[in-house]
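INTERNAL AUDIT FORM
Audit reference: QA-55
Scope: verify that the stored structure record matches its stored sequence.
Auditor: D.O.
Record contents follow.
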Amino acid sequence: MKAIKAPKLRSVLTALALVVAPGAAVVGTAGEAFAVTKISHSTATAMFREVGITWSSSGNCSDRYNSSCTSFEQLNLATAQGAQTLKRASGCALNITGGTEVGHASGTYSHWNGYKLDYSKYTCIGNYIKNNFTYIGLRGDGAPQWRSGSGNVYADEGNHWDVTYYNCGGC
């Protein structure tokens, strides 16, 4: 079997990502352990509309550089798929109030880096999370947390759910 050189592998991975998720881009190099697929705001909103997920912002906008907006620019594909999985599995209303816009805490698995979404707190989704996921204790800031079977983490921040998507949740 002939080995594929890194530039050729990157081309193959990019082509594959575009077939799997039109409008997406693969970020990373062949030497990394994994590649994260980033999607545009319009791709994310189309995915959310497809399953009935809504979104809102205090500023009624989607500018990634304005903390009053709710943006999905540079969201990880797995995060958008994770939201779809949650909606389908729970059957609950989901309204996203925070995406990849500025104004959230920093870190590797952050909103800015495309791993997190904030959801409005509704009784249905809260009951679903607490009844189907495993309570794992308090986060450093005191927020109670639950972990899904796939490893995604749901933190109750009082007035909203802060969800970290490490994967698509079994999509």
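Auditor finding: record pair retrieved intact. The CA atoms of residues 56 and 69 lie 8 Å apart.
Action required: none
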